[in-house]
Design brief:
The radius of gyration is 36 Å and the shape is globular. The longest helix is centred in the last third of the chain and has 35 residues. It is built from 18 helices and 26 strands. The protein is an alpha/beta fold.
């Protein structure tokens, strides 16, 4: 009986980052990577984006485990959120698991989770229907692995992030013999990295990149601020080596970077002398030419941190005239606008900018010929390009067609597509709903399209607030509208606009008050519509209009006073009678005191009665 296989992407296709793929073999689900992505410009205020695993919640008992390829955020970033809902084992190399533990420990809900399993390229795990094994690949982080799921129908291979580099050092080297052996054994489907598929030029070797970094350090006299992804261990090692050779000290910024550096050092993945690192307080004692500041930013994302430094928003380390900002990370194409804005900010602050990608092809992902080499080694029946926007997936497909691959055996998937293999045929089945889950502060998934739309409107056209006080009984406006505007127009310079808006509000409110079928919702909607129409006519902008209608009852206080006055003459008659005795004077005095207390009590009672009457009449 043939196995039934489903391949479902939850992220990583037609987008940058957020890699997560599920392979379902005879009802058992294997999760390949669990990553996040950093938000694009239109996701206002969003910190990060993670996959939506609603489908997995409904099938949580069928999940075998999570298998990780490497320790970058696009592969492990969503793991803390995933493990807070799914108590399943996690498998990865020693370095990958160490970084995953740092991520998970930062999430209170899962900080006690300890079901981690360290594997390497020689590990095989037998789950019955599936045997999971691994192979070594070259990437910018040590112990990066590809994953093989051996089934009765053939092998399903997931490359993870990879490239081919003949000069790679131990810990970063690709096992070419193992790749050839996997291909000879028969590959059913290949899920292959497409992040650099558009690039026809060969990647520069890591040896060449290291020499370029050292040359930049050597010929620069001032401070160098290096922008780097925190988990790019290979690049950090190259920075440390260049600093030692040019007599510079390195200052690390942020706890995240310190944790990663300390972890990599304990595992032997980073090596440097103890006196290489200095604190921000020790920088003043060093000459500018003896300083390197390694900036990675929050969650390892350096570009926004550089913006804060350029805007003098950091406590200690800000960009000064003569500084060089050296970007040794290659940002995704989605960040091009942000990087250009960052460059401008740095120059305004008196610094200069240099990117390693300006001179060298420094990607950590396979270029076109590398992808074709992987295809020739694996010889898959079916190709599934992953990890990249649509044009990159398409470029990967075109590279496969050049090798003579059948176009019907190449599938460019979208999130939620279900690619099914059964009875010797691969094809698209009925898909599932998979959206994005947005993280904003401590909120997970509580920000949806409606909130984002409102944020965009507020950012584009601002807000217009109108406060009106009415007396519904008298059917009149008690106070003229008070108008406040933020992000729309400058009020003092647009008095005519504000005055006309006020008149429109008054007219609209009065029309609603005169209507026998008065309705609060209709009143507010009426104000919004009339104001929106007028403001767009005058400004061609559509601000968020927020009408605030307050109601007062002007009869209440006068009614209380008049009823109290009518009750007052009756109060002395309620006083107790006194008897004439020798102590009449004293009794009279006591009686007067008693009367006074009683009078006070009655006055208090009168107020309560009046209030009750008023409430009754309103009802």
């Amino acid at each position: 009986m043939s196995a039934k296989i489903k391949i479902i992407p939850f992220g990583g296709v037609r987008e940058n980052g957020k890699n997560m793929y599920a392979v379902d073999v005879n009802g058992s689900i294997y999760i390949l990577d669990c990553g996040l992505k950093y938000p694009e410009n239109e996701l206002l205020g969003i910190d990060v984006v993670i996959p939506d695993w609603s489908y997995l919640r409904e099938n949580k008992d069928r999940i075998v485990g999570v298998f990780l390829t490497h320790g970058h955020a696009d592969a492990i970033g969503a793991l803390p959120y995933f493990l807070s809902e799914f108590n399943v084992p996690v498998f990865g190399s020693e370095m990958t698991i160490a970084l995953a533990k740092i991520n998970v420990a930062a999430e209170p809900k899962v900080k006690k989770y300890d079901d981690f399993h360290v594997i390497d390229e020689k590990t095989e795990i037998d789950f019955g229907d599936v045997v999971v094994s691994f192979f070594a690949t070259t990437h910018s982080i040590p112990e990066s692995l590809g994953i093989v799921l051996k089934t009765d129908e053939g092998r399903i291979v997931y490359t993870g992030d990879f490239k081919f580099d003949q000069t790679a050092k131990p810990g970063y080297q690709t096992d070419y013999a193992r790749l050839g052996a996997i291909g000879q054994a028969g590959v059913l489907a290949l899920l292959s990295d497409s992040a650099n598929a558009e690039n026809p030029a060969m990647n520069a070797s890591e040896q060449t990149l290291a020499e370029s970094i050292e040359e930049t350090f050597h010929y620069r006299d001032g401070r160098i601020i290096v922008a780097c992804v925190a988990s790019n261990i290979l690049r950090i090692q190259q920075i440390f080596d260049a600093a030692v050779k040019t007599g510079r000290k390195v200052c690390l910024t942020g706890r995240d970077l310190e944790k990663i550096v300390n972890t990599a050092m304990k595992l032997g993945k980073l090596s440097f002398d103890d006196d290489l690192l200095v604190t921000p307080d020790q920088l003043d004692a060093l000459k500018p030419g003896e300083t390197v500041i390694l900036q990675t930013g929050k969650m390892g994302e350096p570009i926004k941190a550089i913006q804060r430094m350029a805007n003098k928003q950091e406590k200690q380390l800000n960009i000064q005239p003569g500084d060089l900002v050296y970007i040794v990370t290659t940002p995704s194409h989605a960040m091009d606008t942000t990087v250009a804005q960052t460059r401008d900010m740095v120059y305004r602050a008196g610094g200069e900018v240099k990117a390693i990608s300006d001179e060298l092809n420094s990607s950590g992902h396979a270029y076109k010929r590398d992808l074709q080499l992987m295809l020739n080694l694996m010889k898959p029946q079916y190709l599934i390009p992953i990890q990249g926007e649509y044009r990159l997936l398409n470029a990967h497909a075109q590279a496969a067609l050049e090798l003579g691959m059948d176009p019907d055996h190449i599938f460019i998937l979208a999130k939620g597509d279900v690619l099914t293999y059964q009875n010797g045929q691969m094809g698209l089945g009925e898909g599932i709903d998979v959206s994005d889950t947005m993280i904003d502060g401590i909120g997970v998934g509580d920000i949806g399209n409606i909130v984002l739309r409102d944020r965009k409107v507020l950012a584009d056209d601002g807000i217009f607030i109108a406060v009106v006080t009415i007396d519904r009984k008298k059917k009149q406006i008690v106070a003229e509208p008070k108008i406040t505007s933020r992000g729309f127009v400058y009020v003092k310079a647009n008095k005519d606009l504000m005055q006309e808006s006020s008149q429109i509000i008054c007219k609209t409110v009065q029309n609603n008050l005169d209507n026998k079928e008065f309705d609060w919702g209709h009143l507010k909607q009426d104000v919004r519509e009339h104001l929106s129409h007028y403001l767009f006519e005058q400004t061609h902008r559509r601000p968020v209009i927020l009408p605030v209608i307050m109601e007062v009852n002007q009869h209440h206080r006068r009614s209380s006073k008049s009823k109290n006055a009518k009750k007052a003459p009756e109060k002395p008659a309620q006083a107790p009678k006194t008897h004439k005795t020798k102590g009449q004077k004293t009794d009279a005095t006591q009686s007067g005191q008693h009367k006074s207390r009683n009078h006070r009590r009655r006055r208090h009672g009168g107020k309560q009665h009046t209030a009750a009457s008023a409430n009754k009449s309103e009802a």
